[in-house]
Amino acid sequence: MLYWLAQTLDFQGVFNLIRYLSFRTGAAIATALVIGLIIGPRFIGWLRVRQGKGQPIREDGPQSHLAKRGTPTMGGLMILTAMIVSVLLWMNLSSVYVWACIFVTLGFGAIGFMDDYDKVTKASHKGLSGKFRLLCEFAIAGFAAWLIVGHNGTALYVPFWNGPALNLGPFYYVFAAFVIVAFGNAVNLTDGLDGLATMPVIIASLAFMLIVYLVGRADFAEYLGIPHVPGAGDLTILCGAIVGAGLAFLWFNAPPAAVFMGDTGSLALGGTIGVIAVSAHHEIVLGIIGGLFVVEAMSVIIQVFFYKRTGRRVFKMAPIHHHFEQLGWAEATVVIRFWIIAFVLALAGLATLKLR
């Protein structure tokens, strides 16, 4: 909105600042952070009144979690509100990548909201049918992939390899949709402890803030040997909005949490980072930067696979953060150590920018 206004005024005077991505990214972080901190207290109070008993707590989970009964969920609405307002305010809304990301954010957020609402109203942790959720998610992700492919093609770029990109052709649509859906659900599975998913999402967003800026610049992309995607640089502002909104939410989600993110936030944030990675042609690098989320998702898949076939569990409990809780780790210990892992993996992912 402000970019359009500045462009209409030919970037005269103070509006010249809006021309620069660095300024708008910093402004997006600050805007989302301030909005989140302002609306947080009243939002949490409203959720408490509306939800009563709050998010249902699993009886078969760690016993320490039973003390969290009554904590409201759907805090992701705070994140999405701050994030979307900041994006609409500072981004160049003529970019197709912006609208693809917003579509996934709102679409996955709506699915997560319905799931949270179902859990709260039925006082059950089951939520919506898994098949129904996946069907809706793939429909949304598929449309976003169609929008993106129309502008940056069907090439898959492989890190650590300086050879030509792999042209997946029509299969790329399926691959891109899978990346978006898989990462959305991986973040969703990770959101099980206070602050556990929020900080790694912020770390991944900071990493992709740099990546999308570099792929959006032809000179930097050529120097680093990474794909150049004209217009993708504007996604730095979206990454900044995620960081600002995430920090504001973490203020209220820090142990002991006053509110839970819920599927409303975790599914939307994961899907958004997934579509950012697809837009930047860094899908494989996403698996490195978001390696913590990948491990969390794989722990659930492994647990279910082996339990159905052998009747035995590989982990004491899945996702894997609960396994460490069952081993006697304090919740804060699990969270902080997983943050450290997320930070190291983000650095490893950024290292691929030059190792080609």
Quick overview of this protein structure:
The protein has 356 residues and is mostly helical. The protein contains 14 helices and 2 strands, in the order αααααββααααααααα.
In N-to-C order, the SSE pattern is HHHHHEEHHHHHHHHH
Which segments are poorly predicted (pLDDT under 50) over 5 or more consecutive residues? Answer: none
Shape: globular
User: How many domains, in number, for the residues?
Assistant: 1
Question: How much is the radius of gyration in Å?
Answer: 20 Å
What can you tell me about this protein's structure?
The structure is a single chain. By secondary structure, this protein is mainly α. It has one domain (2-351). Helices cover 67% and strands 1% of the residues. The chain is built from 14 helices and 2 strands, in the order αααααββααααααααα. It has helices at residues 2-8, 21-51, 76-90, 96-122, 130-152, 171-190, 198-215, 218-224, 235-253, 262-279, 283-289, 291-310, 320-326, 331-351; strands at residues 155-156, 166-167. A two-stranded antiparallel sheet has the order 1-2. Helix 3 runs parallel beside helix 10 and helix 7 (198-215) runs parallel beside helix 10. The chain is globular and about 60 Å long. The mean pLDDT is 89.
Question: Which terms summarize this structure?
Answer:
single chain; 356 residues; mainly alpha; two-stranded antiparallel ribbon; 14 helices; 2 strands; 67% helix; 1% strand
How are the SSEs placed, and which strands pair?
Blueprint: H1 2-8, H2 21-51, H3 76-90, H4 96-122, H5 130-152, E1 155-156, E2 166-167, H6 171-190, H7 198-215, H8 218-224, H9 235-253, H10 262-279, H11 283-289, H12 291-310, H13 320-326, H14 331-351
Antiparallel strand pairs: 1-2
